[in-house]
Amino acid sequence: MTADAEHQEVTVAVVGARGYGRRHLADITRIPGARLSAVADPAPLDGDAAELAAGVPHYRALADLLAAQRPDIVTIATPIPTHRPLAEEALRAGCDVLLEKPVAASQSDFERLLAVAEETGRSVQIGFQDEGSSAYADIEELISDGEIGELRGVGACGTWVRSTAYYERAAWAGRRRMDGVDIVDGAVTNPFAHAIQAALRLAGARRAEDVATIEVELFHAHEIEADDTSSLRLLTAKGLPVAAGLTVCATETAEPYVVVHGSAGTVTYWYTAGRVEVAGRSGTRSWNTEVTSLLGNLVAHVREGAALLSPLEASGAFMRVLEAVRRAEDPAPIEPRHLSRLQAPGEVFVQVRDVEQWCARVARELRTFTALGAPWAPEQGVLAELQIAGRAVATYVDGAGTAALDGPRPHLHPLRTLGGTGVTDVAPEDHTWHAGVSMAVQDVCGANLWGGATYVRDRGYRWLEDHGRITHEGWLEEPHESAAGGSALQRLAWRRGDGELLATERRALRWQPAPEGWELEFDSEITAAGEAPLTLGSPGSNGREGGGYGGFFWRLPACTDVEVRTATSRGETQTHGSADPWIAWTARAESDFTLVLARPTGGDGADADRWFVRVSDYPGVGAALAWETPVTVPGGASVHRSYRSLVADGRLDEQQLRAAGARLAG
Fold it and tell me: Which GO terms describe its molecular function (predicted)?
């Protein structure tokens, strides 16, 4: 530091001197070399704010203040919609800015502010106060040293209590928009914004491009527009999951925290309490952290060029989250049966039952409320219960309870043998987008209706914001059963994430007894929705050798003693990619069972379909619709496939397998 810089006085003007702005007024008094030069607030100041601002000019608007003087720094703590215009005004006047979080009410406003900062050459520090904590250097060192092993993900948990008075304190509180202007208030973007920012930073995601894809689940228990109980899950550009469970409807307030999960331990950071605890290879220990004032850091930046602790561009990842909240469907109301109401003088506390444990599970398991099965979240709607001679053999659900990134779609789960052995799995840890027995395709005109990461030619798997869904649209024939089995005829829609219709599907399910157990027929006719061609592709058709999965797929539970065979080959390597008329899977789960699947029929390219087989990585088998080349369906035309399967108890011998395979394939 030069002698001149050491003695340079830095003038600071406070815009929005009530509310959080009071802290800025107090902070200035503690920073050597900083001097309060003016305040701007449309209302008179009172209490400690008036005392701290005594003797300096008070303007009703920033424009009036800037017409009279040009401070070195302008702090802004005003309603969210005013953040971008006020910050831009200060930057263009030649001031550096300390702007309270969130930066703005939209991604476009954030990008505009970035451009103005670059154009003017001025600096913007964002008021994520925790960015000044020593915790980050400590935790990053622990991760770098391998104390908790390989990084697996980052979770955040926030459970606070806020009454109706909290939403009555200001006109914008609890609002998503006012008079056509985005507000984007809510649990994710306001009270727990620091939790989101901390989790993102510890996951290595600071800039907008560091976030690959986001799903948010917004709910409200209070009678407000915004969310007060929410979960989110995102994946960084490197594929690391970040999840948060947040509520202001808890029974009691607890310290919010961020937890970093590793293969050999965890690091937990209680950011409001300033405490870190590591449970890793060297045991368990904890310590308190220190926080550097962001305003003090900005003053040092002005005086001597110190690096900013919370620069504007480092809020880019958080703004991706805010934008996802802004663009999401309005929060869903939580049904009264899940709520308790506590009356207090002048206010009411609305509490979501057991919300604390669900928020903690989100942070621990890195899954959303819906994926975890929280009682107020969307449930898997039961479409049909399949029975054979009075025995329940399968449940057909609509997929409404499936996370957005997992390709929501109707599927059969659980599916059992007549003896009761389960032979399907859903949302397994290795591939959460696998869903029992289902029809799904990874590349439908560029939309991922399979779930998970998308395979991109010459780039490999990438998490993209391209996920769609397959929805139940009604019955052409209601599910019905007889002594001979049962059947149902269904209408479905294949849609992009924004709801655009890509295709319609006519699906028939038929189930009946068989000599060895019972049979399932899954008949699918997919029709291009518009005049443009419908393309159905796979990782295989996009360049991944041997990765042509998509179409009919059966995810099995954890198995042992697995034997996979066709009429001409045995084993995973030999059967994978084959075109034999049938394939058999014999294994032990709860007990021994056998599946026999016949190669699909359809008459319109079905001869190109191949068997997709996985045993060593995970248990799954399917008939690939687009093994090496995409299926192109002209506008208004259809592609048809019919799949027949046998489900049997025990391990069928070779003669039984061949007989069953011939029957199904015939």
Answer: nucleotide binding; oxidoreductase activity
* Count of structural domains, the chain: 3
Give 294's contacts (C-beta < 8 A, 6+ positions apart).
98, 125, 127, 128, 129, 131, 132, 309, 310
- Give the domain CATH number at 121: 3.40.50.720
Strands (E), 360-484: 382-388, 391-397, 411-415, 437-440, 443-444, 454-456, 460-462, 469-482
Residue pLDDT, tens place only, 152-174: 999 999 999 999 999 999 899 99
Task: List 489's β-bridge partners, or say none.
Answer: 477, 508
The pair of structure tokens assigned to 10 is 């830095």
pLDDT of residue 634: 96
160 and 99 fall within a common domain: no
Supply the range of the domain harboring residue 240.
Answer: 132-289+313-372
Report the share of the chain in percent with pLDDT over 90.
94
433, 451 in Cβ contact below 8 A? yes
| Mean pLDDT confidence for 372-389 | 94
In DSSP notation, 567-587 reads: SS-BSHHHHTT---SEEEEEE
Q: Which of 72, 102, 130 is the last residue before a domain boundary?
A: 130
pLDDT of 447-464, one tens digit each?
Answer: 999 999 999 999 999 999
Sign of CA dihedral 322, 327, 328, 332: positive
* pLDDT (tens digit per residue) in 347-367: 999 999 999 999 999 999 999
636 by DSSP, 3-state: which? coil
Whether the pLDDT of residue 284 is over 70: the answer is yes
Q: 97 with 74: CB under 8 angstroms?
A: yes
Question: Quick one: CA torsion of 192, 197, 203, 205, rounded to 10 degrees?
Answer: 140
Residue 1: pLDDT band (50, 70, 90) is very low
What's the confidence (pLDDT) of residue 436?
98
Residue position matching structure tokens 């010459």 = 458
Q: Which helix (H) or strand (E) holds 329?
A: none
Residue with tokens 């007894």: 513
Taken in order 296, 302, 305, 310, the sign of the CA dihedral is positive
